[in-house]
Amino acid sequence: MADSLVVVTISSVIAASAPLVFAGVGETLTEKAGVVNLSLDGTILLTAMTGFAVALLSGSLALGFLAAMVVGAGIAFIVAYGSIALGQNQIALGFVLTLLCADLSSFIGNPYVRRPGPSVPHMPIPGLASIPVLGPIFFDQDMVVYLSYVVIVASWLWIFKTQPGLGLRGVGERPEAAYARGVAVQRTRYVYTMLGGALVGLAGATYSLSVKLGWSHGHTTGIGWIALAVVIFGGWHPLRVAFGAYLFGALKSLGSLMQPAFPDVPTQVFQTAPFALMILALLLVSGDFTERLLFYLPPRGRRLFNALLRGTPPAALGKPFRPG
Amino acid sequence: MSARQPRLSRATLALLPVLLALIFTTLVLLVAGANPFEAYGNILAGAFESPRKLADVAVAAVPLLLCSAGGLITYAAGLWNIGIEGQMIAGALATTWLINALPLPSYGLLPLSVLAGLVGGALWGLLAGVLRTFGHVNEIFAGLGLNFVAAALTNYLIFGPWKPPDGATMSGTDPFPQAAWMPTLPNVRMSLITFVLALIAIGTVYVLLRGTHWGLRLKAIGLNAQAARRLGADTTSNMLLAFAVCGALAGLAGSLQATAVYRRLIPQISGGYGYLSLLVVLLSGSRAEWVPLVVFFFSVIQVGSPRLELRLQLDSSLGGVLQASVALFFLLIRGVRERLERKRE
Amino acid sequence: MLHPCSWGPGMKIELHDIKKHFGPVRANDGISLYVDSGTIHGLLGENGAGKTTLMKILAGYQPYDAGGILLNGRLMRFSSPAEAIQAGIGMLHQDPMDFPPLSVLDNFLLGRSKGLAQGRREGEKELGELCQRFGFALDPDVLANSLTVGERQQLELVRLLSLGVQVVILDEPTTGISAPQKKLLFDTLHKLAQEGLSVIFVSHKLDEVESLCSRVTVLRRGKVAGEAVAPLSSDHLVQMMFNQRLSPSTRADVSLGEVVLELQDAAVRTYRLSVEHMSLQVRSGEMIGLAGLEGSGQRLLMQACTGLERLAAGRLSIAGRDMTHEPYARFLEAGVAFVPAARLEEGLVSGLTLCEHAALMARTGDFFVHWKDAEAQAQKMIGDFNIIGRAETMVQELSGGNQQRAILALPHDDLRLLILEHPTRGLDLESTRWIWGKLLQRREQGTAILFTSTDLEELVEYSDRIVVFSGGVMSAPVDAGKITVEELGSMIGGRQQ
């Protein structure tokens, strides 16, 4: 039936987008503290491989996820230490680590290519899963998908509703002022970079243990880069970032859905469309002409438009901080 | 005492990252259950075991030299031109289009194909530049997005309009007509013409950055855009030109890969050389005179690594691990050195 | 840490023999200060006198090299601003230390408690109460970057008070706020003093200090130049601040040429400051001194004259050509050069050598750099301006004074208009004289010169005419030969002639 196809599609989009949600929210936390972790794509590859391999070898899914999160935090630590303590450029470190982790994942993961392995079991929530329409979409998923909901809400609550979250926002915007108010700036940067890295590790493990089972070279096909773009698209706000993640997932699904309807148009068009649309989206969020467009909107509309679409990066993003 | 120290430091700065990288890769090999010495031996053998293999090192060096030359220019201006990979592809696409469109003899076709590579890459580079300067899209994402688009365009063409009459395969298009083949030396895959072109490119960039006003302006913009502007170096036009020149060189690399190495358009025509060249630029401290040495080192690894798969059933990506870890340790050691210097003050 | 409330209202502050140096510069050279509770204590002095450094030390932003701070007789040492606030000392910076993209309420709450809860409801209530007490109108949901400077100050003040500070330091609070906001601020400060708080008011503005403070300490060149008690006499204060001799200017007359720069009713408007109704005519060979306290509008005028800042109204012409909307590059072509004061941020490119700077400035249309020429030019610069360095020295390795000389040596010889921001700042007397010799040479070649300075003697001695900026208002040009340094000081302090 037509509507059950819709339901199934949306449900699978939610599931398939879980890694992007984790990575996006994780990087949002990192960037809110003022650090860019450009190694996302490599880290996701490495952690996907790690999660799968450890889960396969140990027989424990939990151990696999844990290992992936540790690896993710570790890579993020290198970015943090290299830039905060050693003063090197965050972009350079992140880029080098991307290539390194990608190659490491290929090399160490070689024996695990195309091997069948564990997967996260499906766990419909009793009661909630029977709600018409919403039930199958949201509550008939695996554990990790439910975890992704928790991460979205928790990060939003943390950033906007707690005192430490307020301090985090202060560190990213104006570290001198945060320092003046007694916030430990460098420690904050380390903590949130590693926390973000752990979430990226979670994203990787989710990918290989839930979304695209197993391991192969280049398994995660560039979602690390998409996660970085989604953070910008989402204006560094966890709810909008999550929305961006689901949007991208939807575009990908839409691509494969629409393929049969247009047999003459080659697959590559549908495959790249999401990436190309991502650039367009960034253009929309960053460009000048949308700024001019705003002038034609009434003031209420302008505020809404601003809140929904525009976003400025944390002012101190990427900049080193020396107290005193 | 202090006169000796700088010389020591420069040597250690160059060798220490390599040493640490070797230690790191050895650990990785041990984790993977392989014999490190066998692995390194195979890589070296893979690159040096025959004249044909040595020539292959030169073949690998060509796109790396060209892309690094281009990368030096954008890096000088303070830009992270991640899109260099896509600019290579664009050059290859432009060349393939030209070869398909113009059935000319060699002496006409080959120079035109080179031109097509330059123009195609330059335009793709300009696109990223325009997105950055006028659209305020960070050049990292503009470049990345365009990389994806270029790769998909290639796939589309190979499996679509440009597919071989027998049917589309992952091997790419039908081979180019012989008139479009860059001549190679007998018995090897190396082309003297492309090698010389690559050397000319790196030499030209050396001169550009050191001896021209434009190069000096780029350097100033990369160091302090505000002061540079006040001293008369307009940021926008200079940056766009940098994107165009880098794109042209990368496009040339892609074009030569198509006409001299594969002699057809394949899906992976850029082969990761674009990204690799950024590592070269970082490692050479953005000094053109160091690029050939680093390129040689990287090319040896590129050519030798596939042997790991043949002989030891190890994935050739170990080469990439080695290359990237040298770059990582280079950055970290430089950071440690700077930190120690700051403490001394 | 000790909570101020445990002492009851009022705190006595004693600064004993505070010393602080930055490299060779002695910012604070043995300063002693005593501030009583329940008073508004003024801290006066020129730029570079050491006021901000001293207050930053008191508020915990900077450590001191020697001396001691006593609060109510107890020796204190702060290692961070947060510790100082806990001890009861809060500082309101000239650019308030707030977070522009966050809301007023968020700014108020940030850093307030160590726990998990934000305490929004209580915070909003307290914010409202404090605002009402002082007559402030702050909307908790509005973003800080949409507030005026005065409102941002109010927010920061209210926040500090809610944290229980007993001492409030205000650093140049009246730059860039409106007159009604100023009145509100002063009323607030009076109220605070009445309640027993100590207020330290750092300023240059004589009339404000006179009307507000019960006691004033004047700093000059890192030392205490004197103290005064209300009723205050501005003449006395000026004398302590500037310590000038009453010598009139002595200068040779130079025949002036054609009009090089003309401003007609020009206006420049920025977030912090707007300057309106600027009219000026400068002739070739003329030297115009721009006097006034930092941030009064001189920089805007200078930037407008080079095309770095757009005119919001009026017209500007260089050598008869209308340049009102032209870009910076056209001004450079027209023979205008701007030499900024921020040496490494704006004036020079850190990482390039002197030789490379000379090459950047070279006017050739050539593609290739003629390094021999550039080196020769760099050597000429080094020789002409006595720069201690070589052509291949990187500019960041030069000492501050030598960087200043390098910046001044860069512009070409045949300029129509040379605009200099604090040309002799940080230079000793000898170097200053040398620089002025060079500038006078340019003047003889026909270059018109516009310069700012905080040294009144320098202004009076070298300018043909002086324009005084005060709070965004540009005075009519005054003939330098007809004004004394004393009078100039008064004008700067805000008292118009």
Describe the structure.
- The complex is a heterotrimer of chains A (324), B (345) and C (497).
- Chain A has helices at 2-32, 40-58, 61-84, 90-108, 134-138, 143-161, 163-173, 175-180, 185-211, 223-233, 238-258, 267-286, 288-294, 299-309, and strands at 122-124, 140-142.
- Chain A is mostly helical and 324 residues long.
- A two-stranded antiparallel ribbon of chain A has the order 1-2.
- The mean pLDDT of chain A is 87.
- With 345 residues, chain B is mainly alpha-helical.
- The longest helix of chain B is centred in the N-terminal third of the chain and has 28 residues, at 4-31.
- In chain C, the strands form four sheets. In chain C, strands 13, 16, 17, 18, 19, 20 and 21 form a seven-stranded mixed beta sheet that branches.
- The N and C termini of chain C lie far apart (52 Å).
- Chain C is α/β, with parallel strands linked by helices.
- In chain C, helix 4 crosses helix 5 (149-162) and helix 13 (371-385) packs across helix 14 (400-409).
- Helices cover 34% and strands 25% of the residues of chain C.
- Classes of the chains: A mainly alpha (324), B mainly alpha (345), C alpha/beta (497).
- Chains in contact: A-B, A-C, B-C.
- Chains A and B meet through helix 4, helix 10 and helix 12 of A and helix 6, helix 11 and helix 14 of B.
Produce a short descriptive summary.
The complex is a heterotrimer of chains A (324), B (345) and C (497). In chain A, 71% of the residues lie in helices and 2% in strands.
| Largest beta sheet: strand ordering of chain A | 1-2
How much of the polypeptide of chain C forms β-strand, as a percent range?
Answer: 15-25%
Q: Architecture of the largest domain in chain C, CATH level 2? A: 3-Layer(aba) Sandwich
Shape of chain C: globular
- Which two chains have the most extensive interface, and how many residues on each? A-B, 44 and 50 residues
Strand segment tally of chain A: 2
At CATH's second level, what is the architecture of chain A?
Orthogonal Bundle
Describe the biggest sheet of chain C? 7 strands, mixed
Spans of at least 5 consecutive residues with low confidence of chain C: 1-7, 245-250
How far do the termini of chain A sit from each other?
A: 67 Å
State the name of the first-level CATH class of chain A.
Answer: Mainly Alpha
